[in-house]
Amino acid sequence: MNIEMCVNSLSMPLPEDILKRKWAGDLDGAVKAIDMRLENEMPDMLRARLVCEKERIRRLPTQYPWNRAQALQKLRELIHVDVTEEEFDRLELSGWVDFIYLNGEKRYFVRFHRSMLKNGMLAHLTGEKPKKENAYLDEMIAEIREKGELKRRITLRTSVYVDEEAFVPGAYLAHLPFPIEDAQQGDVRLLAGDPDGLGDPCAPQRTAWWKRDLNQWRKFEATYSYVSHIRYADPLNQPAPAAPLYPCAEPTDEDLAESGAYLRFTPYLRALAHDLADGEETDVMKAWRIYEFITTKINYTFMRDYFQFDNHGEYCAVNLKGDCGLQALLMVILCRIAGIPARWQSGMSIDEDYIGGHDWMQFYLKGWGWVFADPSYGGGAYRAGNSVRHAFYFGNLDPMRLAANRVYQAEMEPKKAALRVDPFDNQSGELERAGAGLPFTMRQLDGDADLISFENL
Questions:
Q1: Tens digits of per-residue pLDDT, 395-416?
Q2: How many CB atoms lie within 10 A of CB 356?
Q3: Distance between CA 199 and CA 219 in Å, rounded?
Q4: pLDDT confidence of 1, banded at 50, 70, 90?
Q5: What gap in Å lies between CA 38 and CA 33, rounded to an integer?
Q6: Burial environment of residue 157 by CB neighbours within 10 A (0 to 12, 13 to 18, 19 or more)
Q7: Bridge partners of 347?
């Protein structure tokens, strides 16, 4: 299978009879219809689309494990409230309960209830105001605003591995996200671990990688440190500095262009960007209007695997919901349409209690150079009524990040032979076993990330 063609084919629609079967919950019928079509001659891209859809269908049910009774019980257990059937129906009809049909039965997304709790949609049931998340950030932001910068050396230990029940002896290729050298990040040092190689420091998606013959289960693990250096930007209220804040290359044509299957300038997104930028003469105000729209109108929602979506940016803008990655990607697309160079970045966000995958973006302003925005953190601040934090994440990041990826839907080196778990991003790592009949799914892989230390420099 041509992996790149497979992924890019997701930008085109399915034959409608197959699409009807899929969303009616007749997954077996959809696969049979695909197999019959594949017996015939057809354009290469259409063939790739059908082959790729078979894999999407295989993975889809793993993300919707609960029937209605189980979903209602999970919601009740989470918020300690006896949610009624009528209230559950109201939440579902309002679009807050993600479901699919499987063989005539509704099945519910594994994290639907946690999305509603996170964005405050259950406050009317619990009687509680949304909790202030990541309170430690306010002190950090105050320090950055006062001093104009904050520089930290961060040491992490991370790993990727196959769940033990999914392990089969064989030849494995493993990729673990590894720090890139980019605007705010540098001086990367491998401290422990036995990778066979490290990607180029400026790779679009950098990894530590292993090629190993395994007879028994093991983790692929590395310990490393790097410097994260944030320089304060307030482009809304301050004149541009004498020189750009970060030592980055000037924008290229690629920073204003469509790319691959998912950085697409659809008619709706073009119209939306035009509406948001209408009447604004400066790039900074156009970017602010885009950021303001995403942070105030897009609700944070945990999403099914990105592999299951046909159009990431448009999905976010049409459904007015999305996680950090969809929000960051939407801001990249809208900025580019508005004529503002924009890039994507991802890796992990870090605090003393939790480390998790995270996405954000960069946009270019004359004089300032490349600056940052984190729409999902900004949106969380807006919902919490924290105007200082909301404004901070337009132009800035906190330094407690690991940046491993700088291009969306980029290949990793060495290349995988099988379809990736996540063909677009790489926050947790990738594994494949040579000769395996099917690629791993996200439910079959796991990883750990531990903060060893951080120190101010």
A1: 999 999 999 999 998 989 999 9
A2: 12
A3: 19
A4: low
A5: 9
A6: middle
A7: 358, 403
